[in-house]
Design brief:
By secondary structure, this protein is mainly alpha-helical. It folds into two domains: 94 residues; 192 residues, Outer membrane efflux proteins (OEP), CATH 1.20.1600.10. Helices cover 71% and strands 10% of the residues. It is built from six helices and three strands. Strands 1-2-3 form a three-stranded antiparallel beta sheet, with no helix packed on it. The radius of gyration is 38 Å and the shape is elongated. The termini are far apart.
Amino acid sequence: MSPAAYYYGGLSFSQLIYDFGQTRGTVDRSEAELEGALQNLKRVHDLVYLNVRDAYYSVLAAEEILAARKDAVANQTKHLDQARAFHDVGTRPKIDVTKQEVSLANAQVDYRQAQENLDVARAALATAMGIPIPQSPEPINTLGEVPNPGSLDDLMTQADKQRPDLVSLRDQVTAAQADIIVARSYFRPSFRLGSFLNYQNLKFPLIYNWDLAGLLAQNFLDGGAKQARLESAKAGESVARANLISFGQKVRQEVFTDYSDLKVAQDKIQLNQQAVGEAKENLALAEGRYSAGYGNIIELTDAQTLLTDSQVQEIVSRYDCQTAAARLDVAVARTPMP
């Protein structure tokens, strides 16, 4: 005897009506985590921007230092020709020529090193930009521009409002507060509405049934799990707030340090420019004294070395000023939008 056929078909529906904040807290946490992730991405963008800007000014500084080293080689060559001429006519000893040959060789070594430093700086710029090294761009020389950072109080305010990693920590506090809402919801019941409709019978026509019911559920015996969950959420919020306060202080310190570094670098530019002017005058005097037969070769080579070193220091001070301005811009999140 074959089994009898049985026909059945139906639909069921269930909908959460209210859970006293459990769903809302979960959504709030997810939204806060998303916003925090976006802020972390913005922070990564700022750091990339800082690396590119630093590499950019490194190339400019390396180019200017190379030019200064090249001038030094030219001057040392001129001084060597002069020493040889004086030696040939018997007015200067051989040691002047030897001493100047050593000075020229040292200047050539410094020039070759400056060439290498420029190649490395260009490679670093290409790497920071994420492009092949042979495609490293030729930057426009803006090393002499004077940054205007604004007032320190305004910078502190900007950093507090705009700094991405600081905003991300505020989002973590929001997420922790959402966890508290979720934990408290477990102390209250949840209400669901359910319904079904089905058709069934051994033969056609089918007989239908339907039902609509509400379910109020509350867990009473959980061994203290609800309370432990709530205490854990509160502790998480306290930790998040402590991290926010601590990092906020670090940001303020970073802004203050970068601002001070920029101001010092700007003062050093003026002092180094004055030193370059005095070194040029000193070299002119040394060259005049040597040509007139009153000075010696050591005085002349020392004057040339002093000028070259002063020029390099002046270039470095302008580089330090620009990189300090770049760090300050990143510290207050004053960077171009990605």
